[in-house]
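quick q for whoever's on today - can somebody do inverse folding on this one?? i tried earlier but teh output was garbage lol. tokens:
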């Protein structure tokens, strides 16, 4: 290869680092000398990217003359790495950040592993076995082989298995260059993207046993900035819901020789690598035996034999700080009740959660497993989502536990007494701060059983992908809950249009409240994923992240938010990133009022902060569309992104027969809706008291929490409960349909009532006037008192024939104006409208490509409209 004169180029990238580079250079020089001792030729290269004057001076000192320096003006870590690779003279590349450290054996053993795999015909990228985080944060975690039975590509949704400080052939970096980061847009983690893309491109990721990268965590580090700003990796094709399961699939690879294990007898004579002081603390804890009550003596004896003293002290500093204290007695007496773990492989909380019978018994869970559970097939769980993760890995919980425990045991032994720990000690000679990570090393994280939080997210993504049938969705509709009744409502109407041609392309996500979608609300074939149920164990922040990752895994062209609070809450941290891969539409209906009468709601609070991220706003109400344009003074170009989708009138609802006339029959006034403050069921009670000669029949139930209690129910009010289908109501008995909402859009229920030919009396509240036509119905001011409502109802009841004739004319008008074809045409226009460059989410070729596909409707929909 022209210009290649070294086996390996070590590329150190620097920007504003100075003093912190001292330990880095010294450790790197040690690692380079070790590689050269094995016969590898190594190029030393420093890539100075927009380096400060102080940084340039630091790297100009005589001790660093053997490092070749190249200045760049990329202003981006990914781009400078790409540029440096092109100028490097090594056949393989090893990156090093200016504040991190190599273990002494990393380059030599990494090159050995690389050459071994290449001789076997594999294209390989090699990683250190451990990442050891130190300084501003402490954590130690395994970077497993891609061929490890514990490897799962689903973990990539939550964390990167690897990072950029790898050792790879130059060819890999030329084939898959690092992307530029865009933190303001919420897109970062170039190394994460590199790991996924190279793996999908056929590069095999392996580790070099007993090697470590010591990664310094500083407040100003790129990873810290990216996590603080809630950045995500770019949407990637290999992580799509229908492809992720195949990511990383490969045949058997020859394993490297196992690291030698220190015999137990020799371990007793050797001071663990974590140091004499902590070893002495462990021995003092082991030697101290508290007096135990007779009730706990059996438990104490059994548990003490399997108790991990070093782990317990490392995990719980409050216990470690107590001298003359017996950790075993503490766990037996109180520790298990506090959720503490007696060993790394036994999670007290997870065991009790997995086995409710043990929790009900009140027995110490560790004692239960040691005496009974182990023999009865109960499986200890290092993390709460262990069972689901095991299923994801394709093995039983028992087999997964054996794998995890074996992996942890080997790592722990090599850290305490083997070469892994020896490498930590050598690195500490250059940077003593690395030793502060020892307490985390005893709690080493083994993905995908990383931590409770990460494993729960990984398990949730696997469950969600399965619930979606491992299939993509062209259009995704996020709704807060499965609203009662079989009426299509807004989500049902747009689903019907989008599903025309292929219902499999449409997926509905229940984000906030779990439940069953009523039959008939959605067209057949549309998938429904109960996100709320499948993520019920996650904290709010984790649910936001999982929702965004799931949406991006589906690779939709359009995402519609129909009252999804969770999706709205995800917009501040993730909205820009989400908008870079899908067109986002906010479906809005009306503002809301607090119990004190103050206005709030999505149109008021959510539109102005996120308008630039939205491809459009869809509403069923011309009233709200006009209000938005006027309130925010939208110029024409922006106002064109606010679209009115008149909900179709349901022609399948027949005109109800008029109730029989005759003396002695009491008029029947129907009302339906949520028994919540917005719908003003209390006002119905007041009207009923003002109209004692009529009976009021009310259908519905309370959905929202809060609000004043209803007053005592008048004798002429009957609560009928909920209904599933509007047509199932005894509509032939109704003389009037009453609608009392204080604020609203264009209610589906009012449209349904308009199809029956039953006279309508309702409040002028937002979009209701778009149904309550003058002369054909009665529309009262929203603040009208009860006696005024009673007077209008008496007027309608006094001339039922005229009222019924007007209501039938209203039915005809609604059917003529609110057709499925006009609704489909409005939706097609809305989602096909391109965004102008100054108000869209992307620009250039990406924007043109997005608009080219324009999330268009199925061709059959357009054929229907043309016909």
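ok took a stab at it. sequence:
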């Amino acid at each position: 290869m022209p210009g290649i004169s070294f086996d390996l180029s070590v590329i150190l990238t620097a920007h504003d680092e100075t003093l912190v580079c001292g330990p880095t250079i010294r450790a790197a020089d040690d690692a380079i000398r070790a590689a050269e001792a094995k016969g590898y030729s190594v190029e030393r290269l420093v890539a100075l990217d927009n380096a400060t004057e102080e940084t340039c001076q630091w790297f100009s000192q005589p001790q660093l003359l053997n490092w070749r320096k190249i200045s760049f003006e990329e202003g981006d870590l990914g781009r400078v790495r790409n540029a440096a690779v092109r100028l490097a003279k090594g056949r393989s590349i090893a990156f090093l950040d200016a504040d991190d450290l190599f273990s002494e054996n990393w380059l030599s053993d990494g090159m050995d592993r690389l050459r071994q795999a290449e001789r076997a015909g594999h294209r390989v990228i090699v990683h250190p076995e451990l990442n050891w985080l130190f300084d501003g944060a402490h954590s130690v975690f395994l970077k497993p082989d891609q061929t490890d039975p514990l490897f799962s590509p689903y973990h990539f949704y939550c964390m990167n298995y690897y990072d950029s400080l790898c050792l790879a052939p130059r060819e890999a970096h030329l084939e898959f260059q690092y992307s530029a980061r865009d933190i303001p847009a919420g897109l970062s983690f170039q190394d994460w993207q590199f790991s996924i893309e190279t793996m999908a491109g056929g590069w095999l990721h392996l580790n070099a046993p007993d090697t470590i990268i010591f990664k310094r965590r500083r407040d100003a580090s790129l990873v810290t900035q990216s996590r603080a700003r809630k950045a995500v990796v770019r949407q990637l094709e290999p992580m799509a819901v229908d492809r992720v399961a195949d990511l990383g699939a490969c045949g058997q690879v020859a394993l490297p020789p196992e690291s030698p294990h220190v015999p137990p007898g020799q371990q007793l004579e050797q001071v663990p690598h974590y140091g004499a002081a902590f070893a002495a603390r462990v021995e003092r804890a082991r030697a101290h035996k508290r007096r135990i009550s007779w009730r706990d003596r059996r438990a104490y004896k059994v548990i003490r034999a399997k108790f991990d003293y070093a782990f317990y002290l490392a995990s719980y500093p409050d216990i470690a700080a107590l001298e003359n204290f017996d950790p075993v007695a503490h766990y037996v007496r109180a520790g298990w009740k506090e959720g503490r773990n007696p060993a790394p492989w036994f999670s007290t909380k997870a065991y009790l959660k997995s086995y409710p019978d043990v929790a009900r018994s009140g027995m110490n869970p560790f004692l239960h497993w040691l005496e009974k559970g182990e023999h009865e097939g109960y499986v200890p769980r290092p993390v709460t989502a262990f069972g689901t993760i095991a299923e994801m890995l394709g093995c039983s919980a028992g087999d997964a536990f054996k794998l995890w425990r074996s992996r942890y045991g080997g790592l722990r032994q090599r850290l305490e007494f083997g070469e892994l720990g020896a490498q930590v000690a050598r690195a500490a000679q250059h940077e003593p701060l690395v030793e502060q990570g020892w307490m985390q090393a005893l709690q080493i994280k083994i993905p995908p059983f990383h931590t409770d939080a990460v494993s729960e997210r990984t398990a949730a993504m696997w469950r969600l992908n399965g619930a979606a049938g491992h299939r993509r969705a062209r259009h995704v509709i996020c709704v807060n809950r499965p609203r009662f009744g079989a009426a299509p409502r807004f989500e049902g109407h747009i689903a019907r249009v989008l599903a025309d041609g292929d219902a499999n392309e449409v997926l509905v996500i229940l984000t906030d409240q779990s439940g069953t979608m009523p039959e008939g609300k959605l067209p057949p074939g549309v998938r429904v994923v109960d996100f709320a149920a499948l993520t019920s164990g996650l904290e709010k922040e984790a649910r936001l992240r999982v929702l965004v990752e799931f949406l991006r895994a589906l690779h939709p062209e359009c995402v519609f938010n129909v009252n999804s609070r969770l999706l709205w809450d995800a917009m501040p941290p993730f909205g820009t990133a989400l908008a870079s891969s899908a067109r986002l539409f906010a479906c809005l209906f009306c503002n809301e009022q607090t119990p004190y009468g103050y206005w709030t709601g999505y149109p008021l609070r959510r539109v102005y902060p996120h308008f630039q991220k939205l491809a459009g706003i869809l509403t069923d109400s011309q009233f709200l569309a006009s209000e938005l344009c006027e309130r925010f003074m939208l110029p024409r170009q922006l106002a064109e992104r606010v679209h009115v989708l008149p909900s179709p009138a349901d022609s399948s609802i027949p005109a109800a027969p008029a109730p029989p006339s005759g003396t002695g029959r009491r008029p029947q006034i129907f009302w339906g809706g949520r028994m919540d403050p917005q719908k003003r069921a209390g006002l119905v009670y007041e009207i009923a008291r003002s109209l004692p000669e009529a009976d009021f029949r009310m259908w519905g139930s309370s959905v929202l929490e809060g609000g004043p209690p209803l007053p005592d129910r008048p004798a002429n009010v009957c609560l009928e409960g909920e209904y599933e289908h509007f047509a199932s109501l005894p509509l032939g008995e109704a003389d009037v349909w009453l609608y009392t909402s204080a604020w609203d859009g264009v209610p589906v229920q009012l449209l349904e009532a308009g199809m029956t030919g039953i006279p309508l009396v309702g409040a002028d509240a937002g979009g209701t006037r778009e149904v309550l036509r003058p002369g054909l119905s009665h529309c009262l001011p929203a603040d009208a008192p009860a006696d005024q409502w009673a007077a209008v109802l008496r007027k309608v009841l006094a001339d039922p024939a005229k009222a019924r004739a007007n209501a039938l004319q209203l039915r005809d008008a609604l059917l003529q104006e609110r057709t499925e074809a006009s609704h489909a045409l409005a939706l097609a226009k809305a989602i096909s409208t391109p965004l102008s460059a100054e108000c869209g989410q992307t620009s250039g070729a990406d924007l043109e490509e997005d608009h080219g596909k324009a999330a268009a409707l199925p061709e059959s929909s357009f054929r229907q409209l043309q016909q």
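fwiw The domain at 6-128+149-246 is CATH 3.90.550.10 (Spore Coat Polysaccharide Biosynthesis Protein SpsA; Chain A). also The first strand starts at residue 6 and ends at 14. so keep that in mind when u check it
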